[in-house]
Amino acid sequence: MADQFELRAYCYLDRMQPQYAAFVGTITQGDLPIEGMASLYVEMAPGNWVFRVVDIAVKATDVKPGAQIVEREFGMFEIHSLSQEDVIQAGQVVLSQLGLKITDRKKPEIASLQVITNVNPYQAQLLNRFARGMMLVPGQTMLVLECAPAAYINLAANEAEKAAPVNLMHISSVGRFGRLWMAGTEADILAARDAAVTALSQIEGVP
């Protein structure tokens, strides 16, 4: 199996933060997560492998699937539970069945990182039309972060929210790049940025 399978992302979240969990709840088509749950995102290629891998994960322990997405190139799924142990064990069973180690995943790369201070009212209005989370208030500072593989943006968002009282505006974790928008004071955004970058840099994997 492993000869045909590429583990693009293996992304564990130990505890979903309030805004992050609320945002995921607005976009998920599966079981709804809540604050405090542990979560695991797995991204793979080819995309159709997601069906088999989700089957392995949900049969391993009492975890619930929140997302199962198949695109032209990649597949991605998310599972969650109030039990960190169950989520970790489900992930370990998946890796074992595939004959892989966690370090066989791809190491995330930051594709774009921008901090925009004192956002103009007109730009704020434009951006708010695409945000499904908190609204961007004119004059705030905004963080824009993109990474690849896309699923790792979930870890970046969750760790950023842990680090500072920022407003989560938008997360996109499907496709070639994951995207994150956050807003707040300049000091809070810088703290959130540093936490997100640190979390991504600490993930071991292949280039």
Description:
- The protein is an alpha+beta fold.
- 34% of the residues lie in helices and 29% in strands.
- It has helices spanning 18-27, 50-60, 84-98, 121-128, 153-163, 186-201; strands spanning 6-13, 38-45, 64-70, 75-81, 109-116, 141-148, 167-172, 178-184.
- A hairpin with a 4-residue loop joins strand 3 (64-70) and strand 4.
- It is globular and about 50 Å long.
- It is found in: Bacterial microcompartment.
- This is BMC circularly permuted domain-containing protein.
- Its main location: other.
Short description:
The protein is an alpha+beta fold and 207 residues long.
Topology readout:
Blueprint: E1 6-13, H1 18-27, E2 38-45, H2 50-60, E3 64-70, E4 75-81, H3 84-98, E5 109-116, H4 121-128, E6 141-148, H5 153-163, E7 167-172, E8 178-184, H6 186-201
Helix pairs in contact: 2-3, 5-6
Subcellular location: Bacterial microcompartment
Keywords: Bacterial microcompartment
InterPro entries: BMC_CP, BMC_dom, CcmK-like_sf
Indicate the mean pLDDT.
95
Q: What Rg do the Cα atoms give?
A: 17 Å
* Strand arrangement across the biggest beta sheet: 1-2-4-3
As a percent range, the share of strand residues is 25-35%
Domain BMC circularly permuted: 109-207
Protein name: BMC circularly permuted domain-containing protein
Keywords: Bacterial microcompartment
InterPro entries: BMC_CP (IPR044870), BMC_dom (IPR000249), CcmK-like_sf (IPR037233)
